[in-house]
TrEMBL record:
One of its GO terms (molecular function) is alpha-1,4-glucosidase activity. Gene3D superfamilies: Glycosidases, Golgi alpha-mannosidase II. CDD domains: AmyAc_CMD, E_set_CDase_PDE_N. Transmembrane segments: none annotated. Residues 144-541 form the Glycosyl hydrolase family 13 catalytic domain. This is Maltodextrin glucosidase. InterPro entries: GH, GH13_cat_dom, Glyco_hydro_13_lg-like_dom, Glyco_hydro_b, Ig_E-set, MalZ. It holds the Pfam family Alpha-amylase.
Length: 630
């Protein structure tokens, strides 16, 4: 079948081009810090015939138009302008954008791209000083482990059949590894996964290229998923207890690996001694009445009704905690041995926290003073380890929390997973039909990048799927070609990648609970082509600093074709994909972007099957390629 050919790009204003007559990125040499200011460089295409060029700043929240000076003719048809940007002395965030005046009009540039008018402040370029995410995070490849279903390393820890009753769901069941999940009662089924099992598979994970783990909750809980915690001070004995966690973290740190635990502080289990709905604890819980010392840890809609507690989305198993209560504040954040701090100290030394439903935590039932509560948790983390990673779970838009002063990064559903799902799997988060062209996909990505400081962009946790979603391979109807495209984007797009356990072997599964099946360790059942692809793309990312912390620029986004560059002062990589399942695709790229970077030389193919000839890229159906232009 003949290839689809895109029209050559000659108009620099075309959305499918490198695309702009104004260029600026928040890396050296375009942004260079000094004591109280930054030297800012703007590249301007000579076709604009600019009469005046300004750097717009707000050092005291008022507009200043700072004239920019032409410093050189630049490369190709690009002119280089510079100005000193004063930092805002009153707050951590300094915003800026650019204004260019021509003979009869004007053009602006902010983090969202070019605009014919003054842009909104929230889309301005942002510099955050005094606070910074951990330097180690962008260098990692994370792997999410749902502990109970990953590997059984110590059968002595296995659940005993009928050991206890899980609320109204009946007695717990001990099932053989790999037996199908009972969808009617999944939270009572235990297969024996534990922390010894995770430790025993560190060699495997390192052979894949994984450098960091994010563990789903490990603390004592009656359920399989353990988001209903009844004891924050002890690792569940079925996972091996505290000693098993200490042994795991010690081994990981000796290997140079990092580990995050899951913080479920918005709510606890109704079996926790603080609540004690079922009377299984030796405590007077809040459910027993107002005379309980823990009554004000929760919010009751009707003080005379012990079953009127405010719960997470109406789930009676997990009543919401009032984190404004001084005893809870001390317990979780402020005390020297507060839960947040304790697990980051010896002998565990975990490297940070992934915080469940972080936007819902508050003083009372409705996320009251959410930012205040999160500030307390951030302080606890950073005082314990200034390089601790504070990661928030947000299923939707998260930029309110990711401006640098609260979270170091978010689980990037909105800024990566959801647009990718629409682009490749043609559905939204609710599994409704949702189809995006490459241009629409690019616009969604650009919108979310524009509202997030650059340093935070690099620490967003990018993902394809998790324990809360259907597996991406299942959403793609097990289309291996599309899955490989997804992995390419996961390993090359700004942010830190995270793999959900088993995705690399081709595990399938619909929504919860079927996305939480046992890892199949029989290699005869693996998709080895997919596994090797994961390994190859992880290695490429680990060997290429520009893919970890480099700037981003879209080169082409039209129809099924998507091409972008990641680059720093030393390297430039071009990543291209073709979504079409039945047609090759030829895309002609403008040379102006490469000229602006002085990267018009040899293209070296790193992975994939693409062909480049004089800036014209050809990819096979469902094809991809990554080139090095360094």
């Amino acid at each position: 079948m003949s290839p689809i050919t895109a029209s050559p790009i000659t108009d620099l204003s075309s959305a499918a081009a490198s695309g702009q007559r104004l260029l600026h990125w928040q890396i050296a040499p375009y942004l260079v810090p000094s004591d109280h200011s930054y030297l800012v460089t703007l590249l301007l295409h000579s076709s604009l015939n600019a009469k005046q060029v300004f750097l717009r700043a707000e050092p005291d929240n008022e507009e200043y138009l700072l004239p920019m000076t032409l410093t050189s003719a630049g490369a190709g048809d690009w002119l280089s302008y510079q100005a000193e940007l004063p930092l805002n002395p009153a707050e951590p965030t300094t915003v800026y954008c650019f204004k260019v005046v021509t003979e009869d009009n004007q053009l602006w540039l902010d983090a969202a791209g070019e605009s014919p008018h003054m842009p909104m402040r929230e889309q301005s370029f942002k510099i955050v000083v005094g606070v910074a995410p951990p330097a180690w995070v962008p260098q990692q490849v994370f792997y999410q482990v749902f502990v109970e279903r990953f590997n059984n390393g110590d059968p002595a820890c296995d659940m005993a059949k009928g050991a206890y009753q899980v609320r109204h769901q009946g007695p717990v069941k001990a099932k053989p590894w790999g037996e199908p999940i009972d969808g009617d009662n999944p939270n009572t089924e235990f297969y024996g996964g534990d922390l010894v099992g995770v430790k025993n598979k560190l060699d495997y994970l390192q052979s894949l290229g994984v450098t960091a783990l994010y563990l789903n909750p490990v603390f004592t809980s009656p359920s399989v998923h353990k988001y209903d915690i009844e004891d924050y001070e002890n690792v569940d004995l079925n996972f091996g207890g505290n000693q098993a966690l200490a042994a795991l973290t010690d081994d990981m740190h000796q290997r140079g690996m990092k580990i995050l635990l899951d913080a479920v502080f918005n709510h606890c289990s109704d079996t926790h001694p603080w609540f004690n709905r079922w009377g299984t604890q030796d405590s007077i819980g809040a459910h027993q009445g107002k005379h309980s010392p823990y009554y004000d840890y929760f919010t009751f809609m009707d003080p005379n009704n012990p079953d009127s507690e405010f719960c997470w989305q109406g789930s009676k198993a997990i009543p919401v905690l009032n984190l404004g209560h001084p005893e809870l504040k001390a317990y979780f954040f402020d005390a020297p041995d507060a839960i947040t701090r304790r697990w980051m100290q010896p002998p565990y030394n975990v490297d940070g926290w992934r915080v469940d439903v972080i936007h819902m935590m508050g003083e009372g039932p409705h996320a009251d003073n959410n930012a205040k509560v999160l500030g307390q948790m951030r302080q606890a983390i950073k005082e314990t380890n200034p390089e601790g990673y504070f990661l928030g779970e947000h299923f939707f838009e998260n930029t309110r929390w990711t401006q640098g002063e609260l979270e170091d990064g978010a689980m990037n559903y909105y800024g990566f997973a959801l647009p990718l799902r629409a682009f490749l799997a043609k559905q939204d988060v609710n599994y409704h039909p949702h189809q995006l062209s490459a241009a629409q996909f690019d616009a969604w990505l650009r919108q979310t990048r524009s509202r997030t400081p650059y340093a935070t962009q690099l620490c967003q946790l990018n993902l394809l799927d998790t324990h809360d979603t259907a597996r991406f391979f299942t959403l793609l109807n097990e289309d291996e070609g599309l899955m490989k495209l997804a992995v390419v984007l996961l390993m090359t797009y700004p942010g830190v990648p995270c793999i959900y356990y088993g995705d690399e072997t081709g595990m399938v599964g619909g929504n919860d609970p079927y996305n939480r099946a046992c890892f199949d360790w029989d290699e005869a059942h693996w998709n080895h082509s997919l596994w090797r692809h994961y390994q190859q793309m992880i290695a490429l990312r680990q060997q290429t600093p520009a893919l970890q912390a480099g700037a981003y620029h879209t080169l082409y986004a039209e129809g099924d074709g998507f091409v972008f560059a990641r680059f720093d002062a030393e390297q430039c990589c071009v990543i291209a994909i073709n979504r079409s399942a039945d047609r090759p695709l030829t895309m002609a790229l403008t040379a102006d972007f490469m000229a602006a970077l002085s990267k018009a030389g040899q293209w070296s193919l790193l992975v994939g099957e693409g062909i480049n000839k004089d800036g014209v890229i050809t990819l096979p159906a469902t094809g991809f390629a990554v080139w090095d232009l360094s």
